[in-house]
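Morning. Coffee machine broken again, so started the prediction first thing and wrote up yesterday's gels while waiting. Chain of 611 residues, entered below exactly as on the submission form.
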Amino acid sequence: MRRPPGPPPWLWLLVGLYLSQLPGTVTWWTAQAKDLLGLGAYSEQVAGTGGFRALLALSVAQLAPTAFLLAGVLALPLPRLRCRFTEWRHGLRRPLPGEPFTEIQRFLAERAPGVELRVSATRSDLTARVYPAGPRATRIAAFVPLTVLWRRDRAAAETLLLHELGHHRNGEQHVAGLGSPFVALLRSWPYVFALCGLLPAGLLLVSGEPSAHLMFAQVVLVVLRVPEVLLLPVGALWSAELAADRHAAAARGGAELLRVLDAIEEADAGRLAALHHPPARLRRWFAHRAGDPRAQLLLVSLLPLALLADLLLTTAGATVAYRLLDVPWGRAAGRALSLAEHQVTGGPEWWAVLAVLAAWPLLAPLRPRIRAPHGRPGGHPDDSLSPRPYATAALVPALVLAVGLAPWGSTADPVAATTTPGPTSSAGPPALPLDPLPLDPLAPTATACPTPSPPAPPGRPDGLPGPTAASGLPSTTDPAAVPPGTFRTARVVSAEPLLGTPRPLVEEVADRLARARWTLSADGTLAEDTGEPPLRRRTDGLHGEKHTTTEVSATTVWTDADLRPAPDGPDVRLVLVRAAVGVDHAVIACRTFDATTTTAAVLVLDLSPTP
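Came back before lunch.
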């Protein structure tokens, strides 16, 4: 029997990409653990806060794909160990002699010598699945619905088994199949993401936590992590499943495969089934056109199209994240495009896909001979591959790389293009094959990042008024006429924002100062008990500065004050012109940027002496 050509080995390509970046993944998680265990400056700053707890949960969500991928890589050279675990977990046993198991085993032996049958009565939601039993050994698990179908409709059951043998023919059981950690990632990742990603971030945003605003951009990128993590493996698995469908259709005909798909539509559905099996409508379309050149083009193009969708999605997410960090829309889009260009040309994914599309038409005819068991002649040759689908699919990576390598493609944002690479405690590990183009500060990045460095302290903002004019008192009043002593805030006369500061931020400062207690020393220093910088007399006014710098941020608070006796009574009028400028130092895809936030206000307070 002449067999239809299989798809390119997309699943194995993803595994190879992950293996090439495994050392960087370990390095990143070592640094991440240091921060989350409180050994870094960032953890010292936010430990115990809602922001730290959200960061911890988000890091767990990021760790889940890495853990599954590591398990999948470790399972590849240990297929017998995976076989034992899979058979224990699903209760798979060697079938007893008798119907229908003897007939099923005979059917498998005729079409794929050496493939063994194992049966289980523990699952009613599966029909049959393939899994490895050794480096060159394969087993097929038959569950209750398959044995029922064998008695009721043997032709349909045989078509299902031919589908599983299609996976065996392409060697996909080692990467996918029953008990695969890679498939387990797709099944569990949405739940892990919702529990450790969306839920903590959402609770942080509604809690009023002071650090919540620092997480806004992070939340946008974390929301995008679900499709980013799933797109590439879903594309590869869909290609493998459709190729197995075509193997069954080549043996029994497309009409028979359509009938079987209708019969088992409910059996193997389940929640999130579309993550590892194509939708029923797509499978029917493919079965109806299994011999059409469009079917081969679909098999070849699924992974390049998934990679393109991932690139577009992450670029859009980075644009929104930059905008939430107060970067103007035009520059935010330019920076996101510059990052996309860096990841297209600097990472191996697009080059690897293009290389596979170019080489696979030459390598595929040799595959049956290479995979033939020792001492046996090569298997049936594949039909000769038409180069047209591969050339058409290669247009996607070729055009993307051409745009990224074009001289004008690197000028999307000169600021972003000239920033110095360097990580923060929220930078991510090297790119995984399931997420080759991450733009999330917690997500994997395509190259190793340098050692963190703190941002430069921000400068004093321009346009701040002097406090004397806002005091409401004659300028001839002697500022030193207020004797030393202790005071409490009697009332907040006014609180007005400056430099475009949102009023709620000013009101928050006013509420805090409304409960403050003040001490005026004999040397002219005015201090209060809520953490504001002490104000010292210089010339005819009071001034103070407070600097805070960590490896990820730098903040400076400036305060100019006017303190004079009130016109009537024992109270004292205090006018504060206060400005705070913070720079958040972030690394996205190993490129740094500084997002600056400025808040300023003028506050007028009346202070009453305390006994």
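The radius of gyration is 33 Å. Going to sketch it on the whiteboard this afternoon.
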